[in-house]
Each structure stands twice: as structure tokens, then as C-alpha cells.
Amino acid sequence: MSATTTSTTAAPAAVEASSLRLIGVDAKEEVPREVEEPYRYAHLLATYSKVKYPPLQPFEHIDAGSRALQHPNPRSFLNTANVVEMTPRFGSDVRGCNLAELTPAQKDQLALEVSRRGVIVFRDQQDFINRGPGFYTEWARHFGRLHVHPTSGHPEGHHEIHLVYKDANSRFKDDSITSTLWHSDCSFELQPSGLTTFFLLAQPKTGGDTLYSSQVLNFRSLSPIMQDFLRTLKAKHTAVGTLRSRQGGMTRRDPIETIHPVVRRHPVTGEEALYVNKQFTHSIVGVKREESELLLNFLYDHIAKCGDHQVRIKWEPMSMVLWDNRITAHSAVYDYSDMKVLRHGARISAQAERPIPALSSMKMED
Fold first, then answer.
1. What is the pTM of this model?
2. Measuring CA to CA, which residue among 160, 158, 159, 165 is closest to residue 193?
3. What's residue 66's pLDDT?
4. Which pLDDT belongs to residue 173?
5. Could you tell me which of 337, 331, 283, 326 has the C-alpha nearest to residue 303?
6. Where does the record place the TauD/TfdA-like domain (predicted)?
7. From the centroid of its chain, how far is CA 304?
8. Positive or negative CA dihedral for 168, 173, 178, 181?
9. Would you kindly state where each structural domain of the chain is located, as residue ranges?
10. In this predicted structure, what is the pLDDT of residue 267?
11. What does residue 123 show for φ and ψ, rounded to 5 degrees?
């Protein structure tokens, strides 16, 4: 969005300096209680534009990972890196790879590797993070049209950067026994996000981890009969009543509802993945309410309980996490809510194709 708007900036609340880790000159040192430093990433605090966004328009998406399939060694961008597989088939932890310096061909390899591993955390990315919001968006556009979130705050002039912000004055929901809410970002969109990049600018000393679950493995572990049944189903995903903003809710783009297949196929790897999530999936199409609730609750429970298909990202300063939003679910963990600390992050998401049904004969509404 390039429209000129009137914005307000959310200033960080007063925080106990001894309990806040500011990622800056020396990220390993805690800021002494008696020293007050200006917040290094104040230029990345949230503003809330008052412009009304138009509906998102369909477009043709060419997955960057598809271009790496013909490379003789599509993992060569990791040749000098130390790669630890977090589990045998899902999640990697990488050190020694500077994402900011990747060539276009290496970005294609990156996209393919993320689609194959589901989620990858890259450590020591201060070069990338300190280059600023203009660099973030230019870098991310290689992977597709950038998604503009309908409610969230963003840095001034950079609507494509979705900000996550909790400080000493933030309220945390306490009406549930857990803060875990498995979801796939903005699955209500006609063309939801694919490759997604997220990093923290400030974080608590401990807590605030992010959980990821492989929807490929979640689907694969079901019985063949259940898999065949799920391939025949569609589900409604909705933004109505599912998004919240401290600036008044869905104020910048009208909420929509979209029908997607319950099982989608990845356009590059060919893998089948569950595509339902508790935050945005409303109902199964064509069945009665009780039947829909029974089936969805079974799938939500399956996703939540399959610890053998999950990884837990423990944040270190200057880490970046990239995941394929089409084939994973994730959840924040608000176990630091009583610590009165700052957690400030930025997310940039590239929209992907309209979900491809795993069942080739399934027809989706236009």
C-alpha cells in the first residue's frame, strides 16, 4: 500500500530493564538496571493507518522453490552451514548461513528447503535484522506478493510488515487453561500465505517460545480410510469474528469467508497436508453442524496432541524462523505474561497459490 495515511504510534511501555533483553550492540548482555538506553528498534514500533484497504485480488503465483528443483544440488546454499535436524522429518536449526547475502538462485533453494523441512530457524541473523524494513520487504518479495494484514500494526510506511508486540501493560487472555492456539496464518484468504519469515527484535530472558506442527505428518499418520474420506471434504475459513486489534478490530479490509479443501497438495513437493485450524476454520461444508464439530474437534485434538510431529523453537537473539504456512500449524506460547517484559517481533508473509485439493477431481467454487 502506498497511500498516505494518518497514523498513531504505539510507544513501548516502561519495562523493568533488568528483565528485558534488548537485541543490540551486545545481545548477550542484559541491560543494567541503572542504565537507560533508547530502544534501538523504535522505528519498528506499530502505527495504525486509517485507510480502508481494497479486497485482495487473485493473481498467479509461481513458487520460488520450483525453480530450485532443476539445480544439481538444491541444498548448496547450506554447504558452509551447520544444520541440525530438529526431528527426522520436520524442522531444522541452522547456523552459519547469512540470509541477507543470498543470491536469487539461493533464495529459490531456501524456498525449496523450507517446503521440504516445514520450518527452519536461522541463528545469528543480525546482518539481516539490522538492515531495516525496506530491506525486509524487498528481500521477501522474491517469494511472492506480500500479504497485508487487515488489522495489525505495522512500521510507518511499511504495511506489509506485521508486528507482534507485548509489553508490561499488555493484557493476556486468561479465560482458557492454555495460551496454545494452533493456526495457519490468515487461512481465510483466497490465496493464504506460503513462505513466512518471522524474527524478534526484543524478547524475554526466557519464555515466549513458538510451537510448530507438521500438517503433512499429521495427515500421514491417519488411517488410509480416514485419509480418503478427508480428501473429499471442503471447509469454510472465516475472518468474521476471528481477528482482533486494539485499534478496533477489522477496520481496514472487510472480513471474508473462503472455501478450501480439508487436504491440500503442495505445488512443489506434491505432499498432502491437513488444512484446518482452530482459529480460522469455521465448519465442514455439506454436513450438519454436529457432524462438522465432531470431525473438526477430532482433527484439532489430533494436531494438538501429536508431539512426535512438533518442534519447539526456543528464541535466541538475532534468530529468524522461516516456515511454509501451507503445510504447518503454529502457536505462540504466552508463558511470560506475568514477567512485565517486552516481546517485539516482525513477520513478512508471501501469499501463495489458492490451495490445491489433494483430490484432483475436486472442484472449487470461483
1. 0.89
2. 160
3. 98
4. 73
5. 331
6. 85-339
7. 17
8. negative
9. 64-357
10. 98
11. -90, 160
If DSSP states are collapsed to H, E and C, what string results for the chain? CCCCCCCCECCCCCCCHHHEEECCCCCCCCCCCCCCCCCCCHHHCCECCCCCCCCCCCCCCCCHHHHHCCCCCCCHHHCCCEEEECCCCCCEEEECCCHHHCCHHHHHHHHHHHHHHCEEEECCCHHHHCCCHHHHHHHHHHHCCECCCCCCCECCCCCCCEEEEECCCCCCCCCCCCCCCCECCCCCCCCCEEEEEEEEEEEECCCCCEEEEEHHHHHHCCCHHHHHHHHCCEEEEECCCCCCCCCCCCCCCCCCEEEEECEEECCCCCCEEECCCCCCEEEECCCCHHHHHHHHHHHHHHHHHCHHHEEEECCCCCCEEEEECCCEEEEECCCCCCCCCCEEEEEEEEECCCCEECCCCCCCCC
pLDDT averaged over consecutive 10-residue blocks of the chain (366 residues)? 41 38 43 68 92 94 97 97 98 98 98 98 98 98 97 94 90 80 96 98 96 98 98 96 58 91 98 97 98 98 97 98 98 91 97 98 84
Determine contact, residues 151/53, Cβ cutoff 8 Å: no
pLDDT score for 30? 52
Return the pLDDT at 18: 31
- CATH 3.90.180.10, applies to 64-357: no
| CA angle centred on 100, ends 333 and 202, rounded to 5° | 35
